[in-house]
Amino acid sequence: MSKSQYDDPNENSGPSHRLLRVGENIRHALSEVFARGEIRDPALDGVSITVTEVRCSPDLRNATIFVMPLGGANEKDVVKGLNRCNKYIRGQLSRLVSMKYLPKLKFTSDGSFGEADHIEKLLSSAHVAQDLTKNSDEPED
Is 54 helix (H, G, I), strand (E, B) or coil? Predict the structure, then answer.
């Protein structure tokens, strides 16, 4: 019986279901920690933080957390503040997430919002709109 490509654990087809599940659990727990407002750092005072994604390494020892402050204001300062409070946040997570080893956390800014704005500007530009009107004027077969 031959093996399919889905049976090969060495196949690089993206994160496993387990990695995604762990990442989502950490994301929900981080949202709860941030909602409490217990983190004391000048860069984080009065800032609402959105956790967009958590990517865990395959061995679950490291996690990259993609965050964005509400409105995108002081983005770099917020990320630096979160990385300064890394140990405290990890301690709070250990109470909320049941894992043998809680991953080391690295906070980084989420660039997907900027990319979405850039694509939106490109699609609404006059040059692209001109091409779209040409295609809509042509009769369909």
Answer: strand
3-state class (DSSP) for residue 78: helix
Tell me the whole-structure pTM to 2 decimals. 0.71
Tell which CATH classification among 3.40.50.620, 3.30.70.260, 3.40.1390.10, 3.30.300.20 matches the domain 17-110. 3.30.300.20
What are the tokens at 39? 């983190």
Structural element, H or E, at residue 65: strand 62-69
pLDDT in tens, 73-89: 788 898 999 999 999 99
Residue 28 Cα to chain centre, angstroms: 12
d(CA 66, CA 108): 5
